[in-house]
Amino acid sequence: MADPVVVEMANKLAEECLAVQAETGEDRLFMKLGDVLGASSQTLEEAFLTAVRTRMANDQGRAFLRKTLKDHRVAKQQEGGNG
Question: At 76, which helix (H) or strand (E)?
Fold first, then answer.
């Protein structure tokens, strides 16, 4: 397991990178930053990529749940309107 200081740095970089990525629309920016980090520290690169990917997976999971609930509510509303 990575050093807690490395994990903290990786988490901060992940948050900053994803914010810049969202603003610029460059959806692979995290990969480029990972390459920059890897040139100096493979440990930080790995922790950073893990931090980014878990955040992206979390966002995708939450979006899936929002859509599922929205679709359910729309279907439920349409069922009520047809009766």
Answer: helix 42-81
pLDDT at residue 1, rounded to an integer: 64
Residues 43-58: tens digit of each pLDDT:
999 999 999 999 999 9
Distance CA 24, CA 83 (A): 48
Tokens of 5: 């200081």
**How would you class 63 by CB atoms within 10 Å of its CB: exposed for 0-12, middle for 13-18, buried for 19 or more?**
exposed
Per the CB < 8 A criterion, the answer to whether 21 and 15 are in contact is: no
Listed as ranges, residues in the chain with pLDDT below 50 are: none
pTM: 0.83
The rounded distance, in Å, linking the Cα atoms of 44 and 46 is: 5
Q: Is residue 45 a contact partner of residue 37, using CB atoms and an 8 Å limit?
A: yes
DSSP 8-state symbol, 24: H
